[in-house]
Design brief:
The chain is of the alpha+beta class. It has 14 helices and 16 strands. About 35% of the residues lie in helices and about 20% in strands. The strands form three sheets. The protein has an eight-stranded mixed beta sheet with strand order 1-5-6-11-10-9-7-8. It has a five-stranded mixed beta sheet with strand order 13-12-14-15-16, with helices on both faces. A hairpin with a 5-residue loop joins β15 and β16.
Length: about 400
């Protein structure tokens, strides 16, 4: 077969000129999370399919339609991870992290995979950055993780971000409310979308997320979970709100907030950004007090979130230019190559960004290349051992001893 290849539908290449802003996001996240005691964790890009079926929930869109699932050569069913929390909980149980001082505070970054309909801000391979505090049900942890993501957006200068919060209550306390919601939906099932109607019994909360007009009308009159929280869940939510206020994090309460994964309990939150169009959520998460037990571990309360890197980039809507090189070493004679290579290596060890000509260019060509790579200075090595240093901004040129060049150009 002939013809050129393209990146698969819903995926994209990150080209070098697009990577500086991404690096800035990762650096800011590492700094902010590190200062709060969160440590980096990395799990595999694929897991046993059952982990997501059990963790994310069989009735969710993710498990029903969006997973990239395949069989390995031994006949095991594996799935490219659609989200990061279930794998981290799997790692928490597998590595006995309950023996560590609790909570265990972790952060992660990497690619995730969902077979969704691609559009701006929605891809089949996308990148998330996220944080989890595992092993405490204290509302302080909810507020700490929310503060991390809010500080990250602030540090990056993401415009137009708004935090919405809600509470789903505990799984047990929610049961009564769900019955009430199901009766409301059953009574008006003729007005609902097919998708919502089919899932009345298995996932009625998702009706709140529908953009189907009839369903939305039904939902404006639906009972909300916030009015049905039991005493303990309501007190927990009150504390979260009070602590957010004390931390000066602005929020609005959204009684209709739900999330696309089954594991959430109590606090849920969503950061939306008005620069993003239809896919307006830039990050979100919540508490998942039952998940670790559901995955075979001990009952362990936890809270966390994930944010989409590509959505942050879309919201920032501008590229930062990468820093140029400190020095380009040009040689007037091919016999000077070894000397140029040795000098470049020595200067790089000293932390300077240095390039040399790798393409056998003429002197003029080397100067042009120095310009293209954004070199602040060019050092010209001449036959006979002399050298001169050109300031590429001013054009000034002076004779120098190559031994001293580091001090002359250090930014
Ligand atoms: P979730 O894991 O569904 O709670 O999503 C957390 C965040 O990941 C969202 O707020 C988005 O920023 C991002 N995200 C989720 N799905 C996609 C996707 N298909 N493409 C790009 N970003 C996504």
């Amino acid at each position: 077969m002939t013809g050129k290849f393209k990146a698969p539908r819903g995926t994209f290449d990150v080209l070098p000129e697009q990577s500086a802003q991404r690096e800035r996001i990762h650096l800011a996240a590492r700094e902010i999370f590190g200062l709060a005691g969160y440590r980096f964790i990395m799990t595999p890009a694929f897991e046993e399919t059952a982990l997501f079926e059990r963790g994310v929930g069989k009735s969710t869109d993710i498990v029903r339609k969006e997973m990239f699932t395949f069989e390995d050569k031994g006949g095991r069913s594996l799935t490219l991870r659609p989200e990061g929390t279930a794998p981290i909980c799997r790692a928490y149980v597998e590595h006995g992290m309950r023996r560590l001082p609790q909570p265990v505070k972790l952060f992660y970054a990497g690619p995730f995979f969902r077979h969704e309909r691609p559009q701006a801000g929605r891809y089949r391979q996308f990148n998330q950055i996220g944080a989890e505090a595992i092993g405490t049900d204290s509302p302080l942890a909810d507020v700490e993780v929310i503060t991390l993501i809010s500080d990250l957006f602030e540090e990056l200068g993401v415009p137009g971000v708004e935090l919405r919060i809600g509470s789903l209550g505990s799984h047990e306390a929610r049961a009564g409310y769900l019955e009430e919601l199901k009766s409301h939906l059953r009574a008006r099932s003729g007005e609902l979308s097919d998708d919502v109607r089919e899932r009345i019994e298995i996932n009625p909360l998702r009706a709140f997320d529908s953009d189907h007009e009839g369903t939305r009308a039904v939902m404006t009159e639906a009972p909300t979970l916030l009015e049905h929280l039991d005493e303990e869940d309501a007190a927990h939510f009150e504390q979260v709100k009070g602590l957010l206020g004390a931390a000066s994090v602005e929020y609005t309460i959204d009684p209709t907030l739900v999330r696309g994964l089954d594991y959430y309990t109590r606090t849920i939150f969503s950061f939306v950004c008005d620069r993003l169009g239809a896919q307006s959520e830039i990050g979100g998460g919540g508490r998942y007090d039952g998940l670790i037990e559901q995955l075979g571990g001990p009952a362990t309360p936890a809270v966390g979130w994930a944010a989409g890197i590509e959505r942050i980039l879309l919201a920032l809507d501008e590229d930062v230019t990468s820093a140029g090189m400190d020095l380009f070493i040009a040689i007037a004679d091919p016999g000077l190559t070894t000397k140029a290579v040795a000098l470049a290596s020595e200067l790089r060890h000293q932390g300077l960004a240095v390039e040399i000509d790798l393409a056998g260019r003429s002197m003029k060509g080397q100067f042009r290349q120095a310009d293209r790579v954004g070199a602040a200075h060019t050092l010209i090595l001449e036959a006979g051992g002399s050298a001169s240093l050109k300031n590429m901004d001013t054009g000034d040129q002076e004779s120098v001893d190559p031994k001293h060049v580091a001090n002359l150009i250090r930014p």
